[in-house]
Write a structure and sequence with these properties.
The chain is an all-alpha fold and about 450 residues long. Helix content is about 70%, strand content about 0%. It is built from 21 helices and two strands. It has a two-stranded antiparallel ribbon. Strand 1 and strand 2 form a beta hairpin. The protein is flat. The N terminus is likely disordered.
Length: about 450
């Protein structure tokens, strides 16, 4: 016989009860344990809001002055403040800090989004359980439900703390940066003295409507692509060549050579950049002095500061990046080569294939198929290679046609100058959004075309 309760209660009724008061539907369904769990979450939400606000102001209540964490947070997110601070003889008066309001509003919004998952869960659970009872299903105790939930959703339960942490450590900063792109947050609107306001797509329009911004953006964008493509291809090609040579049985002491070639990778890239910056110093660097001593040049070469020859600085930067990054691909390709079956080469030699043909038709396809996803990651790394460019050239030499950028600046170093040096946070946020869209689109497109990804 069925254990369904007497009387027929429509399934939406417990769901509606849980929508109004979390856990009320479970209580109607006589599941006190589940009702208590959902109600505790509801009480925590209400208690948090009431405890951080002042809801006893009567008719004088307003969200800014009396709202709790969630109400004031959402108010601040939409308005970015309504009262600016003023300078007086005693200091700054009380007022709103737009950036803090924006951050608190995002925290409140994301917290409500996570809590809404529990709210929807309580509604669906109450309605589904009542529908099951109405259909003649057996009653299930709260303890049995928790056991079934633990067994069926163990993976999700274990992953949920990481998901919550990711929301506040990754999603929150990304959303903050995106929203800044739609404000006028710059050196003319700096909190706490000034309020920041929403300006819509004006910042995006400025990039393409103001000639100085457009020329700088397109110039830096083209160089960034050239830098990323050439750096990745050169490091991969040279690392592949070194790995193939070291795998040749005619090479003596391959481990010694491999250890020597890995040294540039072992040294931190920033340290290498600073050392090379000193060596290529146009005024005091030993390389310019040596070229003069041997008679190759009549005067010192200003490698990184000669505005009349920016390609010199770009070429040197590419060579130094090659020196730093090729050992990674050498080690990677070397590991792949050890896993290629010798029978492939034996069959190729029996068919009369030359060493170059074996390299082209056996070695390279096998290696490239394995390394392709890492090539995409290397491209993304070089696209955003802030450390090497900034510590080596600081974006120089200067370019009179660019706005706040030099001839070797990448998008990421230009973004740094816009924000930290010139306090144009809104334009910097637009640049960061462009970088995200460009890199994300290219990465997804290439990964989808990669056989290594399609076979996962």
């Amino acid at each position: 016989m069925s254990n369904a309760p007497r009387g027929h209660l429509p399934a939406p009724v417990p769901g509606l009860a849980s929508a109004l008061v979390w856990g009320a539907g479970q209580l109607i369904n006589r599941q006190a344990g589940k009702a208590a769990c959902f109600f505790v979450c509801f009480a925590a939400l209400v208690g948090w809001e009431m405890g951080t606000g002042n809801y006893y102001a009567g008719m004088d209540f307003d969200a800014r002055g009396n709202g709790g964490f969630f109400v004031k947070g959402l108010w601040g997110l939409f308005t970015l403040g309504s009262q600016a601070r003023e300078v007086t003889l005693t200091g700054l008066t009380d007022g709103d800090n737009s950036i803090i309001l924006l951050a608190n509003g995002l925290i409140a919004l994301l917290t409500l989004a996570l809590l809404s998952i529990i709210w929807i869960w309580s509604i669906r659970d109450a309605a589904r359980y009542r529908a099951s009872l109405n259909a003649g299903g057996e009653r299930e105790s709260s303890l049995d439900y928790l056991k079934r939930l633990w067994e069926g959703a163990f993976a999700y339960i274990m992953l949920s703390p990481g998901m919550v942490l990711m929301v506040f450590m990754s999603v929150l900063p990304i959303m903050f940066g995106i929203l800044i792109a739609f404000t006028n947050y710059n050196r003319d609107h700096l909190p706490p003295k000034n309020l920041v306001g929403w300006v819509g797509f004006d910042n995006f329009g400025a990039i393409f409507s103001v000639p100085a911004w457009t020329q700088t953006f397109l110039g830096v964008l083209v160089w960034t692509f050239v830098w990323a493509v050439v750096s990745t291809a050169a490091a991969y090609g040279f690392g592949f060549l070194q790995a193939v040579l070291l795998a040749n049985q005619k090479v003596k002491f391959p481990r010694m050579w491999r250890s020597i070639f890995l040294l540039p990778w072992a040294v931190p890239a920033i340290v290498s950049a600073l050392v090379f910056r000193s060596m290529f110093n146009g005024q005091f660097g030993p390389i310019s002095q040596w070229l003069m001593d041997v008679g190759l040049t009549d005067e010192r070469i200003y490698w990184f500061t000669d505005a009349s020859n920016p390609n010199l600085a770009r070429g040197i930067a590419l060579l130094i990046n090659l020196w730093i990054s090729f050992p990674f691909f050498m080690a990677l390709v070397g590991g792949v080569l050890t896993n290629i079956d010798d029978s492939y080469y034996e069959a190729a030699r029996m068919d009369g294939a030359s060493p170059l043909q074996q390299l082209r038709h056996i070695t390279f396809p096998v290696v490239h198929r394995t390394v392709a996803p890492l090539l995409i990651l290397s491209f993304v790394t070089n696209f955003n290679n802030f450390g090497l460019v900034y510590f080596l050239t600081e974006g120089g030499p200067d370019n009179a046609d660019y706005r706040f950028a030099g001839s070797t600046d990448l998008l990421v170093t230009w973004l740094f100058k816009l924000t930290l040096n010139n306090q144009l946070y809104n334009i910097g946020a637009v640049m960061s959004l462009f970088i995200f869209l460009i890199v994300g689109t290219i990465s997804v497109w290439n990964l989808n075309r990669s056989k290594a990804i399609r076979e996962l």
